[in-house]
Amino acid sequence: MRRTARLLPLVLTAATLIPLQHNDSDASYQEIPLDGPTVQARTKPFGMAAVTWPEGTRNVTAKIRVERDGQWTDWESLSVEDEHGPDPLVPEGIERGGTEPLWVGNATGVQASAVTDTGTTIAGAKVVLIQPGVLASDADEPSAQSVEPAASRAPYPMPLMVSRKRWGADERLRTHNGAACARPKYTTTVLAAFVHHTADRNDYTRTQVPAMVRAMYAYHVKSRGWCDLGYNFLVDRFGRVFEGRYGGAQLPVLGAHTAAFNSNSFGVALIGNFEKAAPPAAMLESTARVIAWKLDANYRSPLATITLDGSRLHTVSGHRDTKATACPGTQLYNKLGWLKQRVNTLMSGSFSTPIYQYARKLGFRNIGQPFWGEHRTRTGYATYFATRDVFYSVASGTHSTAGAFRTRFRRLGAGSARLGLPITEAYRVPGGSRQKFQRGWLVWDRRTRQVHLVYGRAS
């Protein structure tokens, strides 16, 4: 007889549960102390479950089963992927270790077990139950958008994405672990993509996915002690892309997905468990399109290698390339070779945009790395590098702004329809310097040390 079968579960009543805050999406959050090897309780309805423990606990084995419609499910092992963070803005002592969360649908009872590899109980362990609720928008489908590869389209376009607002993110939750978390933290640039799986179930429906993302968001913040959802992007089995961490999908937002390698990278999580099951073709294709968009905008080859945190890694890597983990699952990990080649095809195999060529001429050592990768503006294209912003349109050609001119042009709204794009670099004039734009000038006065705006047809 298995050891767990001899254990007498601790039976809790609803009154012993710890209900926390509800948000606007009717989400509820419950924690049950796991003081012994197992715990059992009937609860308020919940849709996602996980187990957490004090940070620093290692070699944990956790499993769970739930009660649905009066019947208990079979035991399921919970994936222990303990090293995604840390989040540097979270005060010390808040973060907790934990399993990946498991989507269970609509359950009203739970039995869970968590022990170390020596069979000892874990002081401070908790079972977490989350009910993300249902929103009217959960059944909405994003409109179709063609992003087929075309060598003439550079950079590769941003794929259609379900925004945080669309999937129902409660932005107030970002202050749960301190006011500092409300403002996103950015890294210097994008050098690499890390592919993950959420180690969740694979049989979810289309309408359940937004609720799953909301529940994962609540778990990462309230249970793990992070600032926000750990991943930058998520992809469901139907091929839909979801915006993850707050801060602007186009920008190098620091996530909490690959521990010491979070800086200068982004994390894409495929929703499901791909240790034994293969990821669907639509899911892989959408993952390739997200990676192609981010890498192409930042002029990174998917076939290259880079150095992160002192380690040599492929530009497109799996979580397991950085530590001993099963993530992103063997079947998905085996597809990384295909994924790199598909990304390369979508990117047309090379960088050939006028902005990239101009940046090479200026020298990346002089202008730094891309911060906001190449993107469309109202009047053309732009890339914001560390020390210069470079703009291009057919009418203006390729030119850059720097220093005080860059600051003022950004305040105007770079790509301003009224002023237009720069048609020269800055040049000296008596008493200061100026830069010509399509419909005026920016003039720096050496005496006042201010930049003045002058409208008029540049000649």
TrEMBL record:
Record Gene3D superfamilies: Peptidoglycan recognition protein-like
Limits of the N-acetylmuramoyl-L-alanine amidase domain: 177-329
Signal peptide: none
InterPro entries documented for this protein: Amidase/PGRP_sf, Amidase_domain, PGRP, PGRP_domain_met/bac
MF-aspect GO terms: N-acetylmuramoyl-L-alanine amidase activity; zinc ion binding
Tree of life domain: Bacteria
Transmembrane annotation, as ranges: none
Domain called Peptidoglycan recognition protein family: residue spans: 159-323
One GO BP: peptidoglycan catabolic process
UniProt similarity note: Belongs to the N-acetylmuramoyl-L-alanine amidase 2 family.
Protein name: LGFP repeat-containing protein
Organism of derivation: Kribbella jiaozuonensis
